[in-house]
Amino acid sequence: MSNTIDPSRQSELVQEFLYACAFWIVAADEELKPGEQTWLNSQFGKQRNDELLIQFSALEGDRFFQVLDDLARAVDDSAKRSIYPGLISWLQSCCGQDGDMGNAETDVLVELKKRLSLDTEIRRLTTVVSSEEDTPTQDERAETRILRGHTGEVYDVSFSPAGATFASASEDATLKLWNAVSLEEIRTLADHSNGVMRLKHSPDGNRLYSGDRSGKINMWNATDGSLLASHTLKRQGGVTSMAIAPDGKMLVVGTEVGRVILLDADSLTESRTLTLQHSGVIRSLCLSMNGKTIVTGGDDKIVRTWNVQTGSVEKELDGHEDGSLPCALRPTASESCPGPGTTPSSYGTLPRARQFALSWDTPSASTVSISAGTANSAYPDPGITPSGYGA
């Protein structure tokens, strides 16, 4: 690895910076395990992983940290806005590849956040700057890109954890994958026979889950678009909400008939249907960061909290005058949280903090709009968990 870094090669710098962060994690226990090797190959490609592994393995002691610091300085703010909010969550998916997140890996995550001043940097990147040169103009704030391609209404979107791509779900029974920077369509995923109502990325970004009006749930390879597994719920109506546990092992769906169903995220086999159902459609669903609590809200105007282990209702909160829609959970001090600045998967971390929005007032509801705006208007409370905003 050269002693000087050329800032003009941003795409390579971003990749090398991300690899340096991941390398620090996998080197924490001084052993590259098979699961970690597979994860690195999936994220960077086998050939590129082999090249970078050799480069970083040759760096000893302070030299590694010098290179990491140089890469962090060389990555421009536009790229940092895309990768910093989801960085810790992405690295946590690497930590679990050997079956357990040990103390050494947890310590590295803490040290990495300190070394990068991650929380401070995220606040800086998501705060409107005061200089005339960098402040978005009124025209830039009003800029909207309409992404066309769907032939039916667009119901849901999900950003990959790294923010590089996002997916959209439509009444036309398809999903579309988009490049979050160029805003170009990457591919169309077609297997559903009914409108696709909800979708969600796995925490490691490798899988994409979708649910349609008939109760069919598909699991896709988020990179190449191949169909990995499929399962249809029996007598439950359509899938109206969806969330996935932070460890990626459990998929939770809410249905049109008011039931909450837990599925194994690898096989899509049903593991449990929660006992008490809402009297009406479940409109929102979210999971706590420790995966022990589910919160649901629906047309019956009641918000319920559920114990995942027992399947029983812990609390019922009423008082709404109409059906409840969004729900969110703030992590407790004892829970592992990706940190301030982490955004729900429905929000992108694009240059100038562009916010992804479903536009129901556009000429055609089959379009997707990307609206430019300030980070202050684009991001919700940074304490909300990545799975905190149910569909």
Stretches with pLDDT under 50, minimum 5 residues = 128-136, 329-364, 372-391
- Provide the residue-averaged pLDDT: 74
Number of DSSP strand runs: 19
Count of DSSP helices?
10
Query: CATH fold name of the largest domain, please?
Result: Methylamine Dehydrogenase, Chain H
The top-level CATH class of the largest domain is Mainly Beta
Tell me about the biggest sheet? 4 strands, antiparallel
Distance between the termini: 44 Å
How many domain regions?
2
The strand line-up of the biggest sheet is: 2-3-4-5
| Shape summary | globular
Helix/strand order, N-terminal first: HHHHHHHHHEEEEEEEEEEEEEEEEEEEH
Helix-strand makeup class: alpha+beta
Helix content: 25-40%
Strand content range: 25-35%
**Rg value:** 21 Å
Instruction: Give the CATH superfamily of the largest domain.
Output: YVTN repeat-like/Quinoprotein amine dehydrogenase
